[in-house]
Design goal:
By secondary structure, the chain is of the alpha/beta class. It has 11 helices and 8 strands.
Length: about 300
């Protein structure tokens, strides 16, 4: 059964995005030395901007710029360091007309990047790490991605116990949505993210992907961030029986993008854009043909 999303796009978004009748593709720009997949490659602002523009040329609809790694075990950086990494990149990409998201858990970073042109705040903590971010988003009126999260990178491996992973994640995201409403964030601003790989063992991620409709039933669009993550490596073992490294998980990522988009995801967040850009278009054609058949 193909899930129908309750809401196609959050608001406000640039008209160029809100007109699209398919899942969006968010390209990842990690301005960090220690991200699990590409740490250090784009730490220089010039390199990060070039990479971002390359991703747009390859089919990304928007870019997610992050200045702090959230990989398991990562050590936090100070707010000034995070700002120094992301501000020049966001400013320059926004000046090029790119729709920019910032990947941050900090209210001060969110406030500053919105001031220089970011249109989305992507908070992996869903407002738990720094509750003041809810007020920043409410005042700014920008789109806010609230991810399922239970703790920072250095402790999340100890927070992986679920009675029913789909039901538990849905309930915890419903609580995040309620907290955002209390802070004055409008429902139409909010996107939900199941937090694949965050405080989850590899097998926990598959039920979440297979039941996106459970999250969509909260009435908000859903973002899926599966790109190159550990649960894909665990699935795709090499000849030596070891998980394949992150840079060999892109084909599997594109497969997830196709399935997620077919099942109603609003957006997929990926490192390698070309495969997922094709995948969401295939999914859109599949959904359209399926809907046409259902009406006949």
């Amino acid at each position: 059964m193909i899930a129908e999303p309750s809401v196609r796009h959050p608001r406000p978004l640039p008209a160029s995005l809100s007109r699209l009748q398919r899942a969006l593709v968010m390209g990842i720009v990690n301005v960090t030395p220690d991200s699990f997949s590409d740490g250090g490659r784009w730490l220089d602002p010039d390199a990060a901007v070039r990479h971002g523009l390359d991703l747009i040329a390859e089919g990304a609809d928007l870019l997610d710029v992050g200045g702090e790694s959230t990989r398991p075990g990562a050590v936090r950086v100070g707010v000034e360091e995070e700002l120094a990494r992301v501000l020049p990149v966001v400013r320059r990409l926004a000046a090029e007309g790119v729709a920019v998201s910032v990947d941050t858990t900090r209210s001060e970073v969110a406030r500053r990047v919105v001031d220089v042109g970011a249109v989305i705040v992507n908070d992996v903590s869903g407002g738990l790490a720094d509750p003041a971010i809810r007020t920043v988003v409410a005042r700014a009126g920008v789109v806010y991605v609230a991810m399922h999260w239970r703790g920072h990178s250095d402790v999340m491996a100890d927070l992986t116990r679920y009675d029913d992973v789909v039901g538990d994640v849905r309930a915890e995201l419903a609580q995040r949505l309620a907290e955002l409403r209390e802070a004055g964030v409008r429902d139409e601003q909010v996107v939900l993210d199941p937090g694949l790989g965050f405080a989850k063992e590899p097998p926990d991620n598959w039920p979440l992907l297979a039941h996106l409709e459970a999250l969509a039933s909260l009435g908000r669009p859903v973002l899926v961030g599966a790109s190159r993550k550990r649960f894909l490596g665990a699935l795709l073992t090499g000849p030596d029986g070891r998980p394949v490294p992150p840079d060999r998980r892109d084909a599997a990522t594109s497969a997830v993008s196709a399935l997620a988009a077919t099942n109603g995801a609003w957006c997929v967040r990926v490192h390698e854009v070309g495969g997922s850009a094709d995948a969401v278009r295939v999914a859109a054609a599949w959904r359209e043909a399926s809907a046409t058949r259902d009406m006949s």
